[in-house]
TrEMBL record:
Transmembrane segments: none
Similarity remark: Belongs to the aldehyde dehydrogenase family.
Pfam family, one: Aldedh
UniProt keyword list: Oxidoreductase
An MF annotation (GO) of this entry: oxidoreductase activity, acting on the aldehyde or oxo group of donors, NAD or NADP as acceptor
Domain Aldehyde dehydrogenase: 25-474
Name assigned to this protein: 5-carboxymethyl-2-hydroxymuconic-semialdehyde dehydrogenase
Native source species: Actinomadura hallensis
Keyword GTP-binding: no
SUPFAM superfamilies xref list: ALDH-like
Amino acid sequence: MAKVAGVTVDTDHWIGGERVGSAAAFTDLSPIDERPVAEVARGGAAEAEAAVTAAARAFPAWSRTSREERARILHAIADGVDKRLEELAQVETADNGALIRSHRRGVMPRVAHNFRFFADWLLRLGHEDFETRGHRNHVSWDPAGVCALITPWNAPLMLATWKVAPALAAGNTVVLKPAEWSPLTASLLADIAAEAGLPDGVLNVVQGYGEEVGAPLVAHPDVRRISFTGSVPTARSIAAAAAPNLTPLSLELGGKSPLLVFADADLDLAADLAVEQYDNAGQVCLAATRLLVDASVAAEFTERLLDRVGRLVQGDPRDEATDIGPQIHRRHFERVDGFVRRAAAAGARTLAGGGPNTDLGGLYYRPTLFTDVPEGAEILAEEVFGPVLTLQTFTTEEQAVAMANATRYGLAATVATGDPERAARVSGRLVAGTVWVNCFFVRDLRAPFGGSRESGVGREGGDWSFDFYCDLKNTVTAP
Ligand code: NAD
């Protein structure tokens, strides 16, 4: 048990409807002051095994529960999230250092929405019928079984519930493994689900390090789906672990997304979109970290962007006035700093930031903007996952598209232009799971979400989530 921001959080695993401890524990540190927030159960192979067993045992009954009953319980979970919204917001901010104001007004309401959305989507899922020579082909969505859901630290509960909600709605049982840097709100979710009447063993939460508890979980032969959000190197290990069992995988990975600013764009809007890329202190997979700007408006755009960067308030994420909080962890902070130092050493020119915020100390890193980056520099290719943007210029649309696509990622792209024809032309040619035109970060859960190339495999959202979490079956009946 831990008391975090005044909220009691159980730091044991949640397996088969019971709190289960481990002999070992790990220390969860606060990104705000690097002090311990909680001692959390450090699971391993035994806990992974116990959780999969509990989920497998709960599967037959849950998978046969009527759609209406599953939807009712998911709605009750959403109500529970709403009721504990402030507590969830406070705990997540203490745990991962993201802004309290976005947790209160954006993230946690959307967490509740995720459950309501997938509950309602379940009720409208069709049963398709086709006829062949008098035979009836009846297509149904059968739940797949035990799902292992592995999530990262940058938006812990939001990303977990994009998986948990459709997996449960589809009639599966779940083992959720949150990231070790932000383990706490997953535990609160287990409490909320139990209070909402979710049967024991349907949702299990195991805590611990990826290599210790995550690895045996994804290698388990009784796991029928693995859904992972995180980094490319981890995705590779998970895919290798899944291969012997041929476990179907959904992978939501990193990005190095572009923001294309054309000469015909509203430059204030374009600068607003650019400064938004520092949200969550840059720890956003979708962030458009490569600003590609028409050379004819680059000076004007840069001036407007720097003005906005200069007005960003960096500080304690618990303060409503703060725009940029800390990096999640000392190790991550140093990784970000390494990228910045190497970019500067390679000859990139620093227009803003360029190092830690020494006024604040701790894990606060200044919003950084580089230009004149030499071709082939690491900073143009690798995902930094911190508040670091690069600015490059182009002279033709052709060149802009080529630069945008010159990455091994393909998660998202943003286009700022005042010309609808150009918008259609350019978005058609961009390699990206999501293209935003004159906007950013708008997500409709009915639409597919995911990445191309190394940004991922598969799509989440609407029918795509149910496609993944179900075994589709065709029953052919003779006349
Ligand atoms: P990570 O890959 O280090 O860890 C993610 C999760 O995987 C954690 O829970 C970790 O414990 C677990 N894990 C680690 N090794 C494992 C193993 N061998 N087997 C099973 N599980 C294991 O990623 P991170 O640092 O937590 O998150 C940042 C990354 O996530 C960035 O690359 C970011 O772009 C990406 N991300 C992608 C999306 C998206 O939707 N595409 C969203 C958010 C973050």
